[in-house]
Amino acid sequence: MGEESQKKSGFVVLAGKPNVGKSTLMNRLIGEKIAITSPRPQTTRNRIRTVLTEERGQIVFVDTPGLHKAKNKLGDYMMAAADRSIKEADLVLWLVEPKAEIPEAELRIAEQLREIKLPIILVINKIDTVKKPEILKVIDAYQKLCEFAEIIPVSAIKAQGIDDLLGSIFEHLKPGPFFFDEDELTDQPIRQLAAELIREKALRLLDKEIPHGIAVLIDRMEKRDGKDIYDVDATIVCERESHKGIIIGKKGAMLREIGSQARPGIERLLETQVNLKLWVKVRENWRESDLLVANFGYSKDDLKK
Questions:
Q1: CA nearest 93: which of 62, 67, 117, 65?
Q2: pLDDT tens digit string along 10-28?
Q3: What is the pLDDT of residues 71-101, one digit of tens each?
Q4: Pairing relation of β-strands 57-63 and 48-54?
Q5: Are residues 15 and 159 in the same domain?
Q6: How many helices (H) and strands (E) does the chain have?
Q7: Each residue of 125-155: b (16+ CB within 10 Å) or e?
Q8: Is the pTM of this model over 0.90?
Q9: pLDDT by residue (tens digit) across 108-148?
Q10: Please, what's the b/e burial string for 286-296 (b: 16 or more CB within 10 A of its CB; e: otherwise)?
Q11: Could you tell me which residues are beta bridge partners of residue 282?
């Protein structure tokens, strides 16, 4: 009883501008592939909760969409979700890149974070890309913006500084009950994870040819009678007819490649063979539609402050 009561728990939000490596860091901390990653900004659209349970306690990480200025209904949902996550947290990890010249976007985030009454750990990511003297300059620059509980340099992609960061997180959490079962890794439905895996591969393969106006719907996910195989049907939704042609590719080559790259990840999720079929549909301006945005994984609650 005494030992159990000493275990710590809490919600930890990963905040930062798009493409600073929040999803990569969260996957590294958990040790599993949960959040999709891409070289392109604003990859994460939902508040993804992942759970780390170990001998010290339980951390529920919340990876938010990158903080940026909303340009449409989808953007409104994304920013409201991020804002709500921060307000509900016990601790904030603010991820930044190792640049001493602070971008305007980071100054806006600092302004938001100064208003909250939570401990903030500044995490300087991508330290593998610069030399140590540069990191010291970054620390000096950011110290002038906010009062931080700690400043920890890491490289999410190289797994540098991860143990130090985890130790610091547990230091700032309080003893409390677990929120999830010990074997749970995420609160995301399997269908949502599968859809995100497909979207990740599409974003990577299409590179700059298609903007962020794509979403993925899982139309069917069911096990075949008497066989250890799942049939998964999914639709990639885009905003223009010209985009549809690019996604499909010459004689369907691009769509087949998206499917072949996404299938292994879905098979690991379902722990069985998967027969994946993909379609492409056009829904003009879906990012401005409350109904379609909700269909793609957002709740009206995310717009509540």
A1: 62
A2: 989 888 887 788 878 887 8
A3: 444 445 445 555 566 667 889 999 999 998 9
A4: antiparallel
A5: yes
A6: 10, 10
A7: bbbeebeeeebeebbeebeebeebeebbbbb
A8: no
A9: 888 888 888 889 999 999 999 999 999 999 999 999 999 99
A10: bbebeebbeeb
A11: 238
Residue 140: which H helix or E strand, with range? helix 132-143
**What whole-number distance in Å separates Cα of residue 249 and Cα of residue 257?**
10
Spell out the SS3 assignment of 185-200. Answer: CECCCHHHHHHHHHHH
- pLDDT confidence of residue 71: 47
Is residue 58 situated within a structural domain? yes
Gyration radius of the chain over CA positions: 20
Residue 195, pLDDT > 60, answer yes
Say how many domains are in the chain.
2
Structure tokens at 161: 């500084």
Residue that is written with structure tokens 């969260």 in the block = 26
Residues 110, 251: Cα–Cα separation, whole Å: 49
Contacts of 63 (CB under 8 A, 6+ apart): 14, 22, 23, 26, 35, 44, 47, 48, 50
Look up residue 258 and give its DSSP letter: H
Longest C-alpha distance within the chain, in Å? Answer: 65
- Taking the CA atoms of residue 80, residue 82, residue 86 and residue 89 in that order, the dihedral angle to the nearest 10 degrees is 110
133, 148, 175 — which closes off a domain? 175
Contact criterion met (CB below 8 Å) for 266 and 276: yes
What is the percent of the chain with per-residue pLDDT over 70, rounded to a whole number?
73
The SS3 call for residue 4 is helix
User: Tell me, what DSSP letter sits at residue 6?
Assistant: T
Helix runs in 145-252, H state only = 162-172, 190-206, 241-248
3-state helix, strand, coil in the chain (%, to 5): 40, 25, 35
Tell me, yes or no, whether 184 lies in a domain: no
- Residue range 181-192, pLDDT digits in tens: 776 666 566 777
- The CATH number for 199's domain is 3.30.300.20
